[in-house]
Amino acid sequence: MGIEALSRGAEHVTFVDLSRKICTLIEGNLAALKIEDDEFDVVSSDQSKFLRRAVKTQAEPFDVIFFDPPYATDYEVVLDYVGEHLEQLVSKDGLVIVEHQKKKELKPEISGLRRYRVLKQGESVLSFYEVT
Asked: How much of the chain, in percent, has pLDDT values that exceed 90?
């Protein structure tokens, strides 16, 4: 999704994946596409640790957070954390997009985030949240 965002004009994308192997694959794809180094960061980290570090270091808020965890992950823990630290993590007009299994129903509102769109794609669903 991040490479697609860059191809459509995103200024910068931060890729976060726990697997170093996946991070290396992402870096290889970015290099093959000749994406400039200043347009991306690739971080090998757990998503919760990454978000906690962003809050702690007062990083600039994200315009879009795309959360595509393994389906066994507890989504609410991460979404609650994002909601609790909304001003630090999500820009005023930002979005949080979560990919999840159709069977996994997410809350319509989560700590300052409101789901405004659901897009079903086979067994997967994209839930779009905006800042309230």
From this structure: 72
